[in-house]
Each structure stands twice: as structure tokens, then as C-alpha cells.
Design goal:
The complex is a heterodimer of chains A (651) and B (165). Chain A is α/β, with parallel strands linked by helices. Helix content of chain A is 62%, strand content 15%. Chain A has helices at 2-41, 45-71, 74-94, 97-105, 109-121, 124-128, 136-223, 233-245, 262-290, 319-329, 362-375, 386-407, 445-455, 458-474, 488-492, 496-507, 522-525, 527-539, 557-561, 572-577, 581-597, 609-618, 637-642, 644-650, and strands at 251-260, 295-300, 305-312, 334-336, 339-341, 344-351, 381-383, 411-420, 426-437, 441-443, 481-485, 514-519, 543-549, 566-569, 600-603, 622-624. In chain A, the strands form 3 sheets. Chain A has an 8-stranded mixed β-barrel with strand order 8-9-11-12-13-14-15-16, surrounded by 5 helices. The longest helix of chain A is centred in the N-terminal third of the chain and has 88 residues, at 136-223. Chain A starts with a helix and ends with a helix. Chain B is built from 5 helices and 11 strands; from the N terminus they run βαββαββαββαβββαβ. Chain B has helices at 11-22, 50-56, 79-85, 108-112, 149-154, and strands spanning 2-4, 32-38, 45-49, 59-64, 71-78, 92-97, 102-106, 116-121, 124-125, 135-137, 159-164. The longest helix of chain B has 12 residues, at 11-22. The chains are: A alpha/beta (651), B alpha+beta (165).
């Protein structure tokens, strides 16, 4: 990253700056110490001072000498002795200390000092014994000579010391100038370091801001859906967990919505259109929700699944009404970037019922209601009920018990007879799967068959029922046929044809006595493949039956797409046939078409003689229903087959 | 110690007396070598022989000076002890020497720097030729502050009189 590079280069500057600063400081101290010793050196003033003191004393001695030579008085002699001693002391002191050092440095200084001492010493004799007047002039000249020597020595040394002091001052001045330059440099470096620190501080702040921004961006990515910009599941869970922690909770409503028709758009128009549709749907939902006076959160949690979380303080507000408004809003076409699309929405909703309730499971409740809404039709809104949860648990229990039941042969067929609608002769039996669980009790096929279809257990279960039915039918004395239902899922997996031929081979049942019943739904998913399997099955000699005709799509086109051996009209026609004339026409028409195609027609759900007579009149060939008897277990069958005569008598 | 009756400041009398002493008429250590005048006990002039001074106290300083080679050893009496002895109550001391040199020493120096009125150098009494008989010495080596002209100029040698002002 760029800021890291800038930081590291600024670190180099900082370290360099500190080094320069440190060296300059060290240099400064060095000059300071050197200046101190220079100042000490410049103290040769003392030489000047001592020098002039000596010269004055010498003059005093000279004058004392003159007086004494003139007067020869005792007092003057004493005075002279004192001055002599003082001058002698002075010359002694000139040999030592700083002055002594200076004299040694002066050219010829030692010799001059020795001369002065010798000349002074030679005067001693005249003090002790005063000279006769004739020699006084000569003595005075001697005194003058000695004093002159002292003057000369003092003067030379004084001058030398002054020169030395001047040199030292010059050097101090030069060093002071250098120190000044160093101090200026120090100030500049200090200022630069300060600026660098400010700059680094600023760049650290910028880096920190950038890092914050990146963190915010990733936080947003982690909490939001990229396509729609809505929140994601993690955010919803976080939100609900937060709401659960609240002591004074609002009314929390959760809606789970699933787009109807989204898969079609995605498949037909591609992902770009799919994303555009999702975006438009998201905006629509957001707009609807934005109209509410509540805190709200809209999230996309899956392909076309959305969650809406509302915190509602208005207790009068109707969640159900809002769900229906949402469905209504989706009834209008949606305008997307890539064109207009039609999308419906299915909704499951749930809401918290008390303050202490944990809100997190509201999502599961709404999802349960959504599943229910989708399984019962499109564009529906269903509220969560506890029964949904009970159903779910039941489904889970059934699901977990199913595999074991298939393995243990706990699921077995019962048989319901079907008859010639005119004569009442029993023509055969439809094998219907039954399951009685030790703990769960009887479980209907409408419950466990869909479950087996989702789990895949239907493959083994189907084969099991097929085997059982074929074995059973093979044992009958009468050559009655047996019907077995096939599931759509069995057609999706390979091996169905093999399963059928295995069952026939094991039971040695004539293939013509086996009827395989399929609903029109098997033709919906992969028609070409299904039709080829049906043809293969028909080729083995078994008969193929179109079951439950008249439910679902109920397209007449299914009748002509395959050479059905038999068509079974759904029981719902029996229930409404007496009421609607149109329905009677439809049944008659189906019978006519079937007859033309060479298929027989069976009516299911006949319960009364009147119904039998009615559908007999429409032209149906066979009938099935409680009118002829309930489905029976294996042990009751042989009798039923034999009782054909009796049944005929009833009709 | 001889308490003179002469007026303070009349040091010529002292000199005359001193001149007598160096002629040898008086035994060694018996002649007057110092006169203290000014604001002292009794207000007159106090005269001291070497023995008098030695009786007041004994102190020593080992130090380098600008006037000697290497470290030298001084013995004598502390100026502060001496002034206390005469009950001197002045702000300054005017210290005069035989060679007509004089210097002013602030009384505050006495306790702060403890200058010595030295009589002996390296164990021997100082003669006039050796800056004697009395020499004001500060402990230069003990305090770098003392290594300046200010204190060098206060280091009077051949001291003969002190006036408490």
C-alpha cells in the first residue's frame, strides 16, 4: 500500500533528522568545552597584573634606594630593606605559576629573569653597608640597571600575555561563530523534525481514516447483498438478536417473501434480467415498507427470498393486511432495466406475541408459513400458526421413520377392487400403500408418499409395493389384474423398467395383468424421456394407465400424447357431476375421445348406486370406490375375487 | 595581642611598629604582623602577633593557585574565625598589603568560601620574599567558581592590615 511506503520513508527522514540533531548537539558541547579551556587560557591577565605590580614595586625600590643613598638614615634603611624584600619576592613569584609559564614562553624570558635576579641580588651588599659618596652614582646606575631589567621583563611578559589573550579571544570569537552556526542548524533541524512529526501525524490520521473506510466498506459487504443493496441474513439475525435483548420490546413482525415466477425469468431471459428483476422487486418491497411508520429492515436472504423485519409500536396495525397489500402491489407488472416482467410474491408472516419472546425464531416461523403458502398455491399470504410447526415436526418424524419402515417392510399394500360398471364383475385390484407406525399410528399415503419423494425413499418403496402386488396377484385363482402407482420421481431415476421386469420375473405374473398408473404430472418435467420409458414399459406387455385425470392442468392434450390403455377420471368429478351440466359434458367428451383412442375409462370414487348409474350412462367402462368396498388387506382378497357373482347380483 | 590606643585607620603607626619587628629586636613570632581596625569590638585597633593568630585557630587548604607550580599546602587561621574573634560587624573587609596593594573582600565570602589567612606554605612560615607573612587564600580547587579574577584579586599577599567597613 502506498501509505505504508510513505510512512517508512518518513521514518528514514526522522531517524536521519535525529542523527543530525544528535551530532550537532555533540559538536556544540565539544565547542563549549573547548571555549571553556580557551577562556582559562585567556586568564593571562594575571600576568599583566602581576607584571605591572612588579614594575611599580621596582620603581618604589628605586626611589627608596635614592633616598637611602642620600640620607643614610636608619628609617630609610628599614624602608629600603622592606622594598628590597618585596621586589625579591616579586621576582620569586615570577618564576612560578602562570607568570612563570608566560616567561618560559617569551623568547629569552628565562635569561632575562636570571639577569634581573642577579642584578637585584648584587644590590644587597649596598643595603647592608652603605657605599661612600664617591660610589653613590655608580650604585645608583646599578640600581637603575636592575630596575630596568625588571621593567623589561615585566613589559615583555605583559606584551606576550596580551597577545596570547588576544589570540585566545579571537579563537573564542571564531568558535562562538561556529557555535552560532551549529545552533542555527539545530534550530532548523528541530523545526524540520517538528514539521515531519506533524506531517507524519497527519499521514497516520489519513491512513487511519482510509483503514476505517475500508473496514466500513467490508462491514457493509458483510452485511449487505451485492445485487440489491439490501441487508443480508446475517444482518437480520443480528437485528433480531438485538431486539431479543431489549427489555421493552416493540411488536416485532417478520415477513418471508418468495418471488413467484422468478425462476422462469432467470431461465428464459438470463441472469442479467434475473438480477434486474430482483433489484426492481427489492425496490418495490422497500418502497412499500418505507411507507410504514416503523423501524424496518428489508433483506435478501437467498435466490429470490426476502425477509422484512418491522418494529411496530402501533398495536392496531394489521400485519395480515400489509402482507396482502404487498401481494397486490406485485400483481402489477414490474419495470426493470431490461424490460417489463411479471412477478408474483408468496408470503409467510409471523410476529412476536409477548415481551419475553425470543425474536430469532420468528424467521423460522415466517419461513414455515411461506412454505405452506407456496405449497397451497401462488401469490398467497399465510400467517404462522403453531399447527404449521406441529406439521413440520410431524414431517420430520415421518421422514426419519420412513427409511427404517421401508427396510423393515412396515409399509405394505392394501387392495381396492375395480369393477365392470355395468355388470359389477370384479376386474382387478389397485394396490395402495399403507403404513401403521408403532408410535405415530396410521400414516396416510398422501402424507408419506410426498415425503418419500423428497427423500428419495420412493425408489425402494415403489419397488417394494410393485413386488408385493405382483406376488399377490400371481397367487389369485381368478386372472384379475393388479394396478400399481408410479411416482414422478421413479421416472427421473434410471432402473424403473428394470424394477418392473424384475417384479414380473420374480412373481411370474403375466405382464398383461399388471397395470402401471401414472399421473399427468410425470409428463410435465421431462416429457420426451418419460414418454420413451412409458413406451418401453408398454412393450413389455404391461398396461399404462393415466391416473387422476381432471386434476391439476387437466389438459386434453395429455390424452393424445400417449396410447394410454386406460384413463382414470378423478373422484372430484363424481362429487360435482350431479350439480354441473357442463361437467357431465366434459366426462362424456373424455369418454368419447378415450374410446376413439382405444382406451378404457374408469371412474373413481363411486359411493352410491345413483353415481354408478350416472357414470355408466356417460359411457364409463369401469368403476372404483366405496360402493364396491374399502381397500382390503391381503388375507381378505381371495374371497373378494370369488364373490364376483354376488357383486353382480347387487348391481 | 596588643590593643592599641591609636585611632583607627592610622596604619602608618602599624608600619613603623612592624618595621621595628623585622629588625630583629623582638623574638620570632612576637612582633605585630597584623592590625585590624574599623567596626570591631571596642572600636580601636587590634594588633596581632603570629602567636596571637595561631591561638585563634588553625586551618589548612591544599590547592593549586595561579602563583605556584602544582598543589601547595597552606596553614593559618580562617578569616571568619579571625573576624569573629574581633567581633567585626562590617559588610566588607579592606585588606591591605606591605606592597601598597589592597583589595575589598565582602564579609559574605568568609562563611561562603571560607578563605584562609595563611601563615605557612608547605610547612614553613612565609617570609616577605615568599608572599608572607600573611596571605589570603581561597580553596580554589574545591570550587571551580573561585577560579576567576574576582577571587584572585581578593587573594592579597603580604597582608599587614584589615579594616572592617
Amino acid at each position: 500500500m502506498r501509505w505504508r511506503q510513505t510512512l517508512s520513508s518518513s521514518k528514514v527522514y526522522l531517524i536521519a533528522g535525529i542523527c543530525v540533531f544528535g551530532s550537532a548537539m555533540a559538536l556544540n558541547f565539544m565547542f563549549f568545552d573547548s571555549s571553556y579551556s580557551l577562556i582559562q587560557n585567556a586568564m593571562r591577565y594575571d600576568a599583566v597584573w602581576t607584571g605591572s605590580g612588579g614594575r611599580i614595586e621596582a620603581e618604589t625600590l628605586k626611589s627608596s634606594f635614592s633616598t637611602y643613598l642620600l640620607t643614610q638614615a636608619e628609617a630609610d634603611k628599614k624602608e629600603l630593606k622592606l622594598r628590597f624584600a618585596i621586589t625579591k619576592g616579586r621576582l620569586n613569584s615570577w618564576a612560578e605559576g602562570t607568570f612563570g609559564k608566560s616567561i618560559k614562553e617569551v623568547q629569552g624570558g628565562d635569561r632575562m629573569l636570571a639577569d634581573a635576579k642577579r642584578l637585584l641580588g648584587s644590590l644587597q651588599v649596598f643595603i647592608n653597608a652603605p657605599p661612600p659618596p664617591t660610589e653613590r652614582e655608580a650604585v645608583a646606575r646599578k640600581v637603575a640597571k636592575a630596575v630596568d631589567a625588571i621593567h623589561k621583563l615585566g613589559h615583555e611578559t605583559q606584551q606576550y600575555s596580551m597577545v596570547q589573550a588576544a589570540l585566545a579571544r579571537d579563537q573564542i570569537k571564531r568558535q562562538q561563530n561556529m557555535q552560532r552556526a551549529i545552533n542555527e542548524g539545530l534550530s532548523v533541524v528541530g523545526a524540520l523534525l517538528f514539521l515531519l512529526a506533524i506531517w507524519q501525524n497527519a499521514s497516520l490520521r489519513r491512513a487511519s481514516n482510509r483503514a476505517d473506510a475500508t473496514a466500513r466498506k467490508y462491514e457493509r459487504l458483510a452485511k449487505h447483498d451485492v445485487v440489491t443493496g439490501l441487508a443480508n441474513r446475517a444482518t437480520v439475525e443480528e437485528k433480531l438478536a438485538a431486539l431479543s435483548r431489549m427489555v421493552q420490546k416493540p411488536r416485532v413482525c417478520v415477513l418471508a417473501a418468495d418471488l413467484d415466477g422468478f425462476k422462469r425469468i432467470n431461465d428464459l431471459m438470463g441472469h442479467v434480467a434475473g438480477d434486474a428483476a430482483l433489484k426492481a422487486a427489492a425496490e418495490k418491497m422497500q418502497a412499500m415498507v418505507d411507507g410504514l411508520s416503523s423501524t424496518r429492515l428489508v433483506a435478501r436472504v437467498g435466490g429470490d427470498e426476502f425477509l422484512i423485519v418491522l418494529e411496530m409500536y402501533d398495536l392496531e396495525w394489521s400485519l395480515s393486511a400489509f402482507a396482502h397489500q404487498l401481494i397486490k402491489a406485485f400483481e402489477e407488472p414490474i419495470y426493470t432495466d431490461v424490460g417489463t416482467v411479471n412477478l408474483g410474491v408468496s408470503i409467510g408472516y409471523a410476529e412476536s406475541r409477548c415481551d419475553k419472546e425470543n425474536c430469532v425464531h420468528l424467521v423460522m416461523n415466517a419461513d414455515l408459513a411461506l412454505t405452506e403458502a407456496k405449497s397451497t398455491g401462488k401469490s398467497r399470504a399465510i400467517a404462522y400458526k403453531d399447527t404449521l410447526r406441529i406439521q413440520m415436526y410431524r414431517r420430520q418424524e415421518v421422514e426419519s421413520a420412513l427409511k427404517e419402515a421401508v427396510k423393515n417392510h412396515d409399509i405394505y399394500p392394501v387392495f381396492q377392487s375395480y369393477h365392470d360398471i355395468l355388470t359389477g364383475t370384479c376386474l382387478g385390484f389397485e394396490a395402495l400403500a399403507r403404513w401403521c407406525h408403532k408410535e405415530l399410528g396410521p400414516i396416510g399415503p398422501d402424507e408419506f408418499i410426498p415425503t418419500a419423494e423428497t427423500t428419495g425413499d420412493i425408489i425402494n418403496l415403489g419397488a417394494l409395493i410393485l413386488d408385493d402386488a405382483c406376488l399377490e396377484a400371481a397367487g389369485w385363482r381368478e386372472k384379475a389384474s393388479v394396478s400399481v402407482n408410479l411416482s414422478t420421481v421413479q421416472f427421473l431415476r434410471p432402473g424403473l423398467v428394470k424394477d418392473v421386469s424384475n417384479a414380473l420375473a420374480k412373481s411370474r405374473l403375466e405382464p398383461s395383468r399388471l397395470k402401471l398408473e401414472v399421473t399427468e404430472s410425470v409428463l410435465i418435467s421431462d416429457k420426451v424421456r418419460t414418454l420413451s420409458i412409458l413406451q418401453e414399459l408398454q412393450k413389455t406387455g404391461t398396461r399404462i394407465v393415466l391416473d387422476d385425470f381432471g386434476t391439476g392442468y387437466s389438459s386434453l392434450s395429455y390424452l393424445v400424447q400417449f396410447p394410454w390403455d386406460e384413463i382414470k377420471i378423478d373422484r372430484s368429478f363424481v362429487e360435482t357431476a350431479g350439480t354441473y351440466a357442463e361437467m357431465q359434458n366434459v366426462v362424456s367428451m373424455v369418454v368419447r375421445i378415450a374410446s376413439q383412442l382405444g382406451a378404457v375409462v374408469t371412474i373413481e370414487g363411486i359411493e352410491t348406486e345413483a353415481q354408478r348409474a350416472l357414470f355408466s350412462g356417460f359411457g364409463c367402462h369401469m368403476a372404483q370406490g366405496y360402493f364396491y368396498g374399502r381397500p382390503q388387506k391381503l388375507d381378505k382378497l381371495p374371497g373378494l375375487v370369488d364373490q364376483r357373482a354376488t357383486l353382480r347380483a347387487i348391481s | 595581642m596588643i590593643w592599641s590606643v591609636s585611632r583607627p585607620g592610622s596604619w602608618l603607626a602599624g608600619i613603623a611598629f612592624f618595621l621595628t619587628s623585622i629588625t630583629g629586636n623582638v623574638a620570632a613570632g612576637e612582633e605585630v604582623i597584623l592590625e585590624i581596625s574599623g567596626k570591631i569590638k571596642g572600636g580601636g585597633v587590634a594588633q596581632f602577633t603570629r602567636k596571637d593568630l595561631e591561638a585563634i585557630g588553625h586551618s589548612e587548604i591544599k590547592t593549586g593557585t595561579p602563583w605556584h607550580d602544582g598543589v601547595v599546602h597552606f596553614e593559618g587561621v580562617l578569616l571568619s574565625d579571625l573576624i569573629d574573634h574581633v567581633d567585626g560587624q562590617g559588610r566588607d573587609l579592606l585588606v591591605s598589603a606591605l606592597n601598597n596593594y589592597s583589595a575589598t573582600i565582602p564579609s559574605s565570602d568568609l562563611k561562603r568560601h571560607m578563605p584562609l589567612l595563611a601563615m605557612k606554605l608547605d610547612g614553613k612560615y612565609m617570609k616577605i620574599e615568599d608572599k608572607g607573612p600573611l596571605f589570603v587564600i581561597y580553596p580554589f580547587d574545591a570550587d571551580p567558581k573561585l577560579g576567576s579574577e574576582l577571587f584572585y584579586s581578593r587573594s592579597v599577599w603580604q597582608v599587614s592590615a584589615i579594616e572592617v567597613k
